[in-house]
Amino acid sequence: MSFTDYSIPEGSHAIFGASKSSWLNDMDDDQIIKRYINSFATTIGTSTHKFAQHCVNKKIRLSKNDKKLLLYHLLTDPEANIPKAVIDLDYLFPNVRNYVNDAITMNMETEKLIIYSDLSYGTADAISCINNYLRIHDLKTGRSPVHIDQLMIYAAYFCLDQNIRPNDLKGVELRIYQNSEIIFHNPEPADIEAIMNKSIHTNRVINKFRSEA
Fold it and tell me: At a CB cut-off of 8 Å and minimum separation 6, what does 165 contact?
C-alpha cells in the first residue's frame, strides 16, 4: 500500500485531530461549533493586541464607529488567517476602544518587556511611570475570569528592574479591560513588596539549584 503525501503548514494542528481527542465528547452541533470558535481564541487575541499596539503608538483614537477598522485588521492579518464567522466584534471592540483611548490619553508605552531575571519577566500590554506614578493596563480578549495577580507581578518586576521600593512611588493603578468593563485596582505597597520578596527568593532557590547541579 502506498500513502498519499500531504503538506500542511509547519507547527499546525488539526482542530479535530488525534492528539487532542476531547472533541469525541462533543454531544451536539453547538458544542462542535463552540470548539471551532474557541480554537481561534489565541490567534484573535494576538492579532487584536497587534492592532491595539499600532493604534496607541500612532496616537489613533477610536470612536464607536470604528468597529470595521478592527474587523479589517483581523481579516487581513497575514499571520492570523481568521475566518469572519468566528469574530465577535461586538464583544471585542468596546474593550479595545477603551484600552486604546486610555493608553493614548495617559501617554503609555505598549508591549513593554519587564525583566527581573531570566526566570522572572513578562510583557505588559501598556505601562507608564510618569511623575513617579505607575500605571499598568491589560487588554483581555477572552471571556474567562481573570485575576489582578498578573498585573501585580508586572508591578513587582518593574520595581525590581528599576531598583525602586513600592513605598517610594506616589501611587500604582492597575487596570484590566474585559467584558466591556474596566477593573481598577490600587495595590498597597506592602502587597507589591511581598511579590518582590517572593520573586527574589524563587530566583535564589533556582540559581542555587543550578550552581549545584
Answer: 159, 189, 193
What is the pairing mode between strands 181-185 and 133-139? unpaired
Is the pTM value of this prediction over 0.85?
yes
Over residues 40-89, the pLDDT tens digits come to 999 999 999 999 999 999 999 999 999 999 999 999 999 999 999 999 99
